[in-house]
Structures are given as C-alpha cells and as structure tokens.
Amino acid sequence: SLQCATSDYNALTQPQALLCLDDDNAPGGPPSLRVKNGKWSQEPFCVAGQAKTYCTHTTSDFRNGHGVSVIASREAANAISSAFPASKAARYISEERLEVSRIPGKGKGLITRHSIQRGDTILLDSPRIIASAQFPSHVSPSQGASLFSTILDQLPGTDRDLLLSLDKSISGTDIENVMKTNAFACQPDDGEVGDGYMCLFPSVSRINHACRPNAHARFIPKSLLMEIKAVRDIEAGEEISISYGRIDLKHAERQRLYKEGWNFTCTCNSCTSTAYEIAGSDQRRARFEQLRKLLENITSETYDAQQIVAWEKEVMEISAREGLDMLLAGDYERLAYVYAGHGMNRDAKIWATKAKESLMEWTVVDGGPGNEIRRVEDFLGELGG
Ligand SMILES: C[S@@+](CC[C@H](N)C(=O)[O-])C[C@H]1O[C@@H](n2cnc3c(N)ncnc32)[C@H](O)[C@@H]1O
C-alpha cells in the first residue's frame, strides 16, 4: 500500500507529482520514496496546451530491456500503461534472421534471410514512443519540441541512439522528423480519453511501403505491440514490405497519398511497372470499388441473390489478381447471409467460417475491436456450427 502526499506543483512545467512512502518495504529497511504509479521511472515533464496538459511518461523497463515514452494527458497515459503486463508477457519473435540493407531508390529496407510462410508473424515490435496525435495542434511548436526532446532524454541511451538513427525524410527537429517519417497511427486503449496516437516502432520503421506488399501490419491494443504478418510465402533474400495506406487505391491516388503524406515518390514494383500494366490494374481496382458500392447499397427492394453471388465472384477474382484478399471478410459474410436466406445452411456455414478466419487473420486482434467477430460467431451459432 502507498501513502501519498502532494508535492509542490507548478502547473506549467510539472505535473502534480505524488510522493509516496512505499510501506510494502517495511519492516526491514527504511521505506523508499518513489513517484506514485511505479510504471513510470522518470519524472513527468508537462506543458499546458490549449485544452489539456500533456506530459511525458517514461519507463525504462518496458519489454526486453527497452523503454517506452508516452506523450499524453496523465489519465490517458496511466490507462495506456495498464497494457504493460501483457506487453511483457507477449511472446518473443527473434529478429536475428532479418537484416537492414540498402535498397535502390528507397534508402534502407528490411530483408529476410530465411523463407517465411503465409500467415507467419515476421516481427512483433515494441513501441518506444506513443504520442497523442492531437497534442501537436494543441501546444505551441516550441512546447511540442520540448516534449519530444524530453522523451528522447528520458529514454534509455540504446533506445535514443536507435531512434535517432532512423530515416528522416520530412522536416522538424531530428526526433520530430523521425516521428513524421516513421510513426504509425495506432489506437491504444486510453480509457475514456479517446485520442488517436502515433506510435514509433524501430524495427517496423525499416520496412518500406509497397502498393502490393508481402506483409501486413496490425497494432495489438492489448499489448501495445505491432505485428507484421506475411500475406504470402516470402523467399529468403526478399525485402519485407507493407502498405502505409489503404491497399485498394489506384495508381494516381497512391502516388498523391505518399507524396503528400510521407514526402516520397513511390517506386514499388506496382508503381514502376509498364503503363499498360498500371492501366489494367487501375481498371480492375475501379471495378472493385464500383462492385463494393453496389453490394453495400443493396436494399430489400433491390435484393437479387443471383446478382449478389455473381458480383461477389467478380470481387474475389479481382482481389486475387490485385492482392486484396485481406479485405474480403465482409464479402464472405454477405454470401453467408445470402445462402442462409435460401436455406442453404451448409454453404452459409462455409462462408461464415471464411469470414471469421479472415477477420482473425488480418483484422481483429486480441483486445482489438471485436464487434464483427462476435456478429459472425453469433451467426455461426445460429447455423448450428
Ligand atoms: C518508414 S521509412 C522506411 C525505411 C527507410 N527507407 C529507411 O531507410 O529507414 C519511410 C521512408 O522510406 C522511403 N520509402 C518507403 N517506401 C518507399 C517506396 N515504396 N518508394 C520510395 N521510397 C520509399 C521514404 O523515404 C519514406 O519516407
């Protein structure tokens, strides 16, 4: 149990630090003084923004000897820290057979030295920085720079050096540039606060974008880790790639997104193939988008089972050509309802099972949003499977 007393408080620079006597240590030695909530090993540094106060929250004992820093309100950071035990308990995936190498036209990239099977986890990376995505627009540029420089100072030296060695392709101080170039949007559970976050994962940061990638990145809210999974078999010597944005975009949309959002001109295989191939792929993707809209807008008046099955068949053919299979859980589920509606429960079960497998494989993670999976499971239950 902890006995706490409020220390002097400077609203601009210091959070309300609670000095606590940890009487769990007694009897024996003198009780130790520590900051309440032993999850943070550094004194927080805070700035009062327009709507909220944002603080740095750093622990040097996060996972596998690494630290992590959170920039968020105190309540959000404490809610996020409740994932720490699950982070520590998460399985360890060796990175020994992954190698950072120079890749023509893309700086560095991540190469695998062993073959990887579809569905395998390639990386399970720990974040070093988790920062509210809202804070930069709620504090002044100099306050933002102070928060970033403080977390850098507070992280263990090995983490600091690793982060500063990452690619810097945009602008700002070194650490701001590293964040802009390498951080991913992520959604940890921050209690009732509900901010969006930017997470920096050092190994994932070495993975280049491809419009038709061989791997998929998904954030695991329960453990705060980023998982990189193979979407197809990958041979030894191949570069690992992920998509930084939606995978169903057409060529011009992708080029614009990566230029405007990340300041690079995409030179992946899909973007550098022949004009003829690009036009063919764009045509298929445009049809995919059109079919998706048609299927989503079906009403009881326009319902036509044969038409739906034909459209879904086309969706699946296109996705096989374009590498969009991981987007199909909703299509499998729709087919399950159509077959069930016509009393064809065996087919309905096959499609509902495919929907569940696809959600589990690519979308829903332990601790992540579970509504879709619950709906499919309930439906499978109704079908008696
Ligand atoms: C997250 S980093 C990826 C690793 C980085 N190449 C490195 O050297 O560490 C993102 C940066 O890599 C480069 N990059 C990633 N994918 C690319 C692509 N498909 N085409 C060209 N440059 C790319 C861009 O400079 C981008 O800002």
Automatic annotation (TrEMBL):
Pfam families associated with the record: SET
Record InterPro entries: SET_dom, SET_dom_sf, SET_domain_protein
SMART domains cross-referenced by the UniProt entry: SET
Keywords: Signal
Domain SET as annotated: residue spans: 96-245
Database matches in SUPFAM superfamilies: SET domain (SSF82199)
Superkingdom of this protein's organism: Eukaryota
Gene3D superfamilies on file: SET domain (2.170.270.10)
Residue ranges of coiled coil: none
Keyword flag Transit peptide: no
Keyword Cytoplasm attributed: no
Name of the protein: SET domain-containing protein
Organism name: Cucurbitaria berberidis CBS 394.84
